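Notebook, p. 212. Picked up where the previous page left off. The plan for this session was modest: take the two constructs that came back from the sequencing core last week, fold each one, and keep the raw output in the notebook itself so nobody has to go hunting through shared drives later. Recording the first one now, exactly as returned: residue sequence, then the structure token string.
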Amino acid sequence: MAPVWAQQDKPAQEVYTCIDKSGRRITADRPIADCIDREQRILDHTGAERRRIGPTLTEHERAAQEVQRRKEAEQRARIAEERRRERVLLARYPDEATHREERLNALAQVDEVVAVAHKRIADLRGERKRIDVELEFYRRDPAKAPAKLQRQIAENDEAVAEQQRFIAAQDQEKRRIAQRFDAELAQLRQLWAAQRASAEQWTPPPGTR
């Protein structure tokens, strides 16, 4: 065992110091309980600061801190995803003419299926005229019309109604497409402007011109 004087002269490895809530400076060789709610400085035997430790958090504070960290991580992920989508959008639409052409193509595709639906309605109405000719024999008492004929009338009416519902849905689809392309164009104009400004600010290295 080392002599007492040797033990007394041996410097402490670390010294913890802080000022408590009463304004007292406290020093110890271990974390200070009275300063658990505040920052503590850790010094070496020469008095030089090695590092600092923050206040110990309560369970509620740790939970709140974790919630904040998750929010910040989600925000960073959202921003990264927005930047990725912007890059994809710029790659797909390098200029307004390209965007306008795709818009017209998307609307034309809807118009094509609507034209088919209108042709189907015209065919159904032709069939209905044929049915009406047969029904003319029972004009005085339609209830005597054969069940097959009555079923054909009901099926024809339902088929026309179905095509009309389809056309109405396609009209809504055209509005949705127009809204999407309008929103994209507004965003793209900002991205194109930023892209041009960045290109104008960039100066090529000497000797590359």
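Okay, moving on. Second construct, recorded in the same format:
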Amino acid sequence: MTVKQWQKPEYLLMVTAAGWGAGFATWLALLNNFAVDAINFTGREIGILQSLREVPGLLAFTVIFVLLIISEQRLLMISLLVFGIGVAITGLFPSEIGFYLTTILMSVGFHYHETLRQSLTLQLVSKDRTPLVMGRQISAQAFASLAVYGLIYCATKFAGMDFAIIYALGGGVAIFTALITWSAYPLFGTKVHQTKTIVLRKRYWLYYALTFLSGARRQIFMVFAGFMMVEKFDYAISTITALYLLNHAINIFLAPKIGRLISHWGERKALIFEYVGLMMVFTGYAFVEDSNLAAGLYVVDHLFFAFAIGIKSYFQKIADPKDMASTASVSFTINHIAAVVIPVLFGILWLTSPASVFLAGAAMAAFSLICSFNIPRQPAPGNETIKGPRFPQDDVLIAEKI
């Protein structure tokens, strides 16, 4: 069967990223206002919600179990479908328990989809193109999100559209994308048969550390930066959405360029740049009193997300090709260990000292910076770190058979 240009793996991954972006943009744009205005959440409840949202991420390693009965590509689409359903029904349950349960359903699809898209990208794309292709996925996601934020801005600013309708429409885009990609794209074979065990290798320790710190730090942004805009500066839905519009408009153009920059600079230099910038941003969050300056920090913070591509491309360069699927699932679990705890604990801390929450984020960025200095300029199997213990390629810390 002849595969057309638009049916190549790179385009499948971009299309699913766009469908995912549209659904998540809807959920995220309405999150804080739905929580505060419709359900009367405080920092405590928003912290619980975000911790519950991250529990499926902690269990992302279970992807390996499901892959015993279905291909990665098909599971990618099923997870996008589940995600879309979770978003679509959120507005139908405007209560504390209802919001918790729909968030968990959405999150199962969300984290499975992210795990599988990363795994398939690392398997189907060459090492020299991976940062660029991941940048294009971010760009496609940003384009879809930009369109959704524009529609939400108009719907809330001029039409007064109800939460339930907006949630249903946003989730519907993800559902439609899942169904279309299932029927329109052929199944792609991977070059290397993937390990069907849960594997932790000692020589990947720096990748695990960077992943853990990235998950912890990201939660502070995801949970508390946007919440600060609503609680401290009284941002309305339309204002928050306008801010998201700006973020994604910038990412459409800059994300692929950042991918190229990572390929040119190398992961070490790119990640050092990211973490120095994040230390400054989080310190700024802690002391900002001007709403416009806070918005500026938020835009810069969001831009740094694209540099996290460097962690994934670093892993691709040092890893055994057969470990991609297994390690993608394990890394999402590692990424979410702190994510399950931080929203609740920091939500309580938020009640007494919001600044302390952001200063903790700056400290995490500092630890990440220290780790990034240990990345070789030319990472490869056997050259995973500059300093620290070296392990043979077959040295396994954990190999849990399924």
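Notes on construct two before I forget. Strands lie at 197-201, 396-401.
Flagging for discussion at group meeting.
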